[in-house]
């Protein structure tokens, strides 16, 4: 199977996913093998929601729509054109996936297969319904994928390299267990926003998407802000108000109530607006319904601090802060060539 065949298959998968949009699910009879898969995938979406209360219909469809937009012929070719894919000896690459947001491990899955390797997937129990079904779709529209994709719930065996995503604690286990294999081991990361106090209402509204999308569970979600001394929070609270209906969702509301009670009993100083608490804290990872912040005195010191803590940070959301920043409101729209932890997965895969 050559690269163009693999690209064509994922483009067809993108077409299939295009039926599942945030504004509704609508069948397109022109899509290949749709009669076999459309109703079944609707059922898998339902199962995913029933199994994991964080995987609401809105969040699952947001993820599917993003992947349908990413998997175009133009995007995939733009992504792959800088690599040499002449693999003579395909390997079996194991992927240990996280389960914090829907299809969070799909980019690794895509990278392994687009590189020409075989994939062995160990999914999180929190996100186990969507990807196996999409893998079956790939095998039907491109039969050469048969035998190249395997899922397991057992101990990983018979593989040549591994990509594993987990917490700081599980990463230590991964590093020991896979010490004799080529590997990418990902740990806890969070995203930060740098504010100056001169942001427009539109920029702060966009930032609210970076904070609240997926309930803040993703590593690309903003969990901490850096603010100038004397920052006035009024504009921020006004802008994020568009997300206030989130408090009507039970799992989020339960976390809000619990964390608020903990803060009050601990006599921590917090600001809150009925659906979000903000707390001054040096940590980068904030609990659900909470956003941490810290003050800075000058930009140079803050830039040095960000560099020093780069291994804890996934995205820096800002306007004019650094060359590596991303605009407000874009954290959950990564391009295919934007790699987790800034580690080029495809380059790694082509060198094993």
From TrEMBL:
<dbReference type="InterPro" id="IPR016161">
    <property type="entry name" value="Ald_DH/histidinol_DH"/>
</dbReference>
<dbReference type="GO" id="GO:0008218">
    <property type="term" value="P:bioluminescence"/>
</dbReference>
<dbReference type="Pfam" id="PF05893">
    <property type="entry name" value="LuxC"/>
</dbReference>
<dbReference type="GO" id="GO:0003995">
    <property type="term" value="F:acyl-CoA dehydrogenase activity"/>
</dbReference>
<keyword id="KW-0521">NADP</keyword>
<protein>
    <submittedName>
        <fullName>Acyl-CoA reductase LuxC</fullName>
    </submittedName>
</protein>
<dbReference type="InterPro" id="IPR008670">
    <property type="entry name" value="CoA_reduct_LuxC"/>
</dbReference>
